[in-house]
Specification:
7-stranded parallel beta sheet, 11 helices, alpha/beta
Length: 340
C-alpha cells in the first residue's frame, strides 16, 4: 500500500508517519505541505491512498481533493484534527470523491491509542475496496428465507437509498426539492463512520423540508421522514416492520451495508417501493438492488457522468438490476412527481 500524507503540521505528519510505519506493508511515498503541492506530486507519482488534511495554506484539502480526482484519481481519506468542527468541509470533500474521514492521531501521553487503531482500520477497509478482495456474492446469502410476510395495510410508500463515495452531495440534490408534504418514507444507508453520521444528518436537514433523523432500533417508518443509518452495524428491516441494527456479516468491508438493508427489505417489506443506488466505490448494493427488482421494486442507478465513483451503480447496471439510470436531479424530479 503506497500512501501519501498531505498536511502542513509537522507533528501531525510525524504522528501519521509513525502509525503507517507500524504496518510492514505500508509505505509513505511522499509528503506535501499544502493542496497545490499535493496535486503536483500526485500527477508525478499517484499513490494508492492519500491521507488529506482539510485546513492548509495555499490550497485547502477540499480543492485539492477536487483537482486530484479530476487529474490523477486515487483513494483519499480525510484526516482532520476535529471531525465535528470540520463537518461542512468534510462533506464537501466527500462530494468530490474523498472516501471517508477520521481524526488525526496524536503522539505522546496525550494521545489516544483508539485514534491510531481507527486510522489503521480505515486504511485497511480502503485497501480491501481498492484490491476488490471482497465480493458481495461470497458474503451475503442471495435468496432470503420468507418465513413471514407482514400485513401491508398501514405501510407508507418506501424509498430506499444506498450511497458511498460522493454520496452526501447526491443525497442533498435528491432531498432538496422534496416538499414537507412528501407522502413516502425514505431509508438511507451512506457509507460513513458512525461518529460522523450525526453531522451528516444535521447537514442534510439543512438541505430539505423533510425531517431527516437517525434510524433507531424499533423505529417505524413515517411519510415525509428520511431515516439515516447511524452506527457501524448494518441497518435492516425486521419482520414486524420496525428497524434494527445487525452485526452480521462481521467480515463485510462496507459498514453499514446497502446490501444488508436492501435484502432485508426484499424479505420483509410489502408493497414494493423504489430502491436507488448512488455513486460509490466497490459493489455494495448491486445484488440487493437486483433482488428488489425481482420482487417488483422500481430500481434506479445513478448515471456515470454524475457519479464521483461509478463502482456501485455500474455493478448494478452490469447485473441488469436498474430499471432506470438517472442523474440525482432526474431522480429528485421523478420522486417529486410521484409522491407530492
Amino acid at each position: 500500500m503506497r500512501i501519501a500524507i498531505v498536511n502542513d503540521m509537522v507533528i501531525a505528519i510525524e504522528a501519521m508517519r509513525r502509525v503507517l510505519l507500524s504496518v510492514a506493508d505500508y509505505q509513505v511515498v511522499w509528503i506535501a505541505k499544502n493542496g497545490a503541492e499535493a496535486i503536483a506530486k500526485c500527477i508525478q507519482d499517484t499513490p494508492d491512498l492519500i491521507l488529506m488534511d482539510l485546513f492548509m495554506p495555499v490550497m485547502d484539502g477540499v480543492e485539492a481533493t477536487q483537482q486530484i480526482m479530476q487529474k490523477a484519481p486515487c483513494a483519499i481519506l480525510v484526516v482532520t484534527a476535529d471531525m465535528k468542527q470540520s463537518a461542512a468541509k468534510v462533506f464537501e470533500a466527500m462530494s468530490y470523491g474523498a472516501l471517508d474521514v477520521v481524526n488525526t492521531p496524536i503522539l505522546g501521553s496525550s494521545g489516544d491509542p483508539e485514534m491510531t487503531q481507527a486510522l489503521l482500520r480505515k486504511i485497511s477497509t480502503i485497501e480491501k475496496l481498492i484490491c476488490k478482495s471482497a465480493h458481495p456474492s461470497t458474503m451475503i446469502r442471495t435468496t432470503p428465507t420468507r418465513s413471514f410476510m407482514p400485513s401491508v395495510s398501514t405501510a407508507p410508500d418506501l424509498i430506499a437509498i444506498g450511497a458511498s463515495t460522493g454520496g452526501p452531495k447526491a443525497l442533498a440534490t435528491i432531498l432538496a426539492p422534496l416538499p414537507a408534504s412528501f407522502d413516502a418514507a425514505i431509508l438511507i444507508v451512506q457509507h460513513i463512520d458512525a461518529q460522523f453520521a450525526e453531522g451528516l444528518i444535521d447537514w442534510l436537514n439543512d438541505q430539505t423540508a423533510l425531517t431527516v433523523k437517525k434510524a433507531m432500533t424499533g423505529d417505524r417508518l413515517t411519510s415525509a421522514t428520511a431515516f439515516v443509518a447511524c452506527t457501524d452495524d448494518h441497518l435492516a428491516m425486521q419482520s414486524n416492520r420496525t428497524l434494527a441494527y445487525v452485526k452480521e456479516p462481521l467480515y463485510y468491508p462496507y459498514r453499514p451495508s446497502v446490501n444488508v438493508l436492501f435484502k432485508s427489505l426484499a424479505q420483509y417489506w410489502r408493497p414494493p417501493g423504489t430502491a436507488i443506488l448512488l455513486t460509490g466505490m466497490g459493489r455494495d448494493g448491486a445484488e440487493g438492488l437486483s433482488l428488489l427488482q425481482q420482487q417488483g421494486w422500481y430500481t434506479i442507478a445513478q448515471d456515470e457522468a454524475s457519479s464521483v465513483v461509478y463502482g456501485m451503480p455500474k455493478a448494478a447496471i452490469e447485473l441488469h438490476a436498474a430499471s432506470e439510470v438517472w442523474t440525482p436531479t432526474e431522480i429528485a424530479r421523478h420522486l417529486t412527481a410521484k409522491h407530492s
